[in-house]
Amino acid sequence: MFEQYMVCEDGFRNVVKDGDVVGFEVRLRVPYYRGIALSLINSIDLVVDGVFYSHDDMVFSVETGSFPYNELSTVINNRWEFGEKATLFVKKQDGLAEGLHKVNAVVNLRISYLPWPNIGEDTKQIVLENDKVLV
User: Fold this and answer.
1) Which family does the record claim for this protein (predicted)?
2) Could you tell me the residue range of the domain that residue 33 belongs to?
3) Are 6 and 31 in contact (CB under 8 A)?
């Protein structure tokens, strides 16, 4: 139902650390009508321009903290609230080229009262912002 709003068109940019581009980030909204604990995220799959990015290279950030993707299942005290734009950082040497990119995200959530996972998918054509985030 909220999948069409999942991939955000703002905040799609490269990340610079110590003068080098170390990756990129994309913002996502939860594809569910309520906020959820981060431990209830089964998976977040990201494909940009046909390239699938490994979970090992991701860091997921919400307003209350940043967590390596592989630790999300243990994060019970932090939530991804409805409407909040979470940031998914992807480690990628030299980041992405400037211009238009096809971004596809699939978010699989575990909902306590549903016997099946809640899976949201969204694809958008987004222009990589010129401003870079310095970390």
Assistant:
1) Belongs to the C-glycoside deglycosidase beta subunit family.
2) 3-127
3) yes
Cα distance between residue 64 and residue 80, in whole Å: 9
Task: For the beta carbon of residue 81, count every other beta carbon within 10 angstroms.
Answer: 14
Encoded tokens for 39 = 């431990």
The number of domains in the chain is 1
* pTM of the entire predicted model: 0.92
Average pLDDT for residues 35-53, to the nearest whole number?
97
Burial class (CB within 10 angstroms; exposed 0-12, middle 13-18, buried 19+) of 85: middle
| Of residues 91, 85, 99, the one with CA closest to residue 128 | 99
3-class DSSP string for 48-94: ECCEEECHHHEEEEECCEEEEHHHHHHCCCCEECCCCCEEEEEECCC
